[in-house]
Please model this.
Amino acid sequence: MPDRTALALPPDTFEQTAMLAGYWRGERNGVVLEEMWLPPSAGVAQGTVRLVQNGKLGTIELIVVAAEASRVVMRYNHFHSDYRPWEDDGPITLTLTAAGDAELVFTNLDLRPRHAMEMGYRLTSADTLSSWVVTLNSNGDTSRFNFDFERVRVS
Model:
């Protein structure tokens, strides 16, 4: 089996995460999805996600992206509306495998991946962001979910 860790980009690509900084909001079929990202600082970028459906909190997600010794890693957990984590086996861990001025792709490089196979972000303009996640269920089946966001200016 090939060394999957060879796909990991080096820590000096971490600054590419700056493209995520800001407040992003998308709406589809009555669901509002918001992502807020702090700009990279001290080797860490931090994001949070809030999903609201029919005026009720559905999910919260906490995301940390960090430059480590040999890679850039994303770790995240989902939380129910009462702040209990979805994942009972620790955070989901993805590794930065592609980075450009307008795109980031994080991939699950674990030998036995769980929960998610890939997450990506693409700036489609200065004020629009597309993201996707490829999930993995307990049967090994994958599904891709796409999200479109617009930048929200906060005064």
Remarks:
- The chain has one domain: 4-151.
- The first strand starts at residue 22 and ends at 28.
- The chain has a mean pLDDT of 90.
